């Protein structure tokens, strides 16, 4: 998950440097979404992993 977030972030930075504002905005939004989903899944896995013996 974090790898996809970083990939989208790099795409957003490259697109911003080249002047593609629409692509940069979309890639940045996707990077934020994937990163937040990854963090949420990580936190859920921490709580569910502690309940098992």
Q: How would you sum up this structure in a few lines?
A:
This protein has 53 residues and is mainly alpha-helical. It has two helices and no strands.
Any key phrases for this structure?
53 residues, mainly alpha, 2 helices, 91% helix
Oligomer: single chain
Distance between the termini: 27 Å
Number of helices: 2
Total tally of structural domains: 1
Mean pLDDT: 82
State the helicity in percent bands: over 70%
Taken from the alpha-carbon principal axes, the silhouette is rod-shaped
Uncertain residue segments: none
Number of strands: 0
**Strand pairing plus helix content: what structural class?**
mainly alpha
Strand content: under 5%
Can you write the helix and strand succession as a string?
HH
Largest beta-sheet characterization: none
Rg calc: 15 Å
Would you mind describing this structure in some detail?
The protein has one domain (2-51). The mean pLDDT is 82. The protein contains two helices and no strands. Helix 1 (2-18) runs antiparallel to helix 2. It has 53 residues and is mostly helical. The chain starts with a helix and ends with a helix.
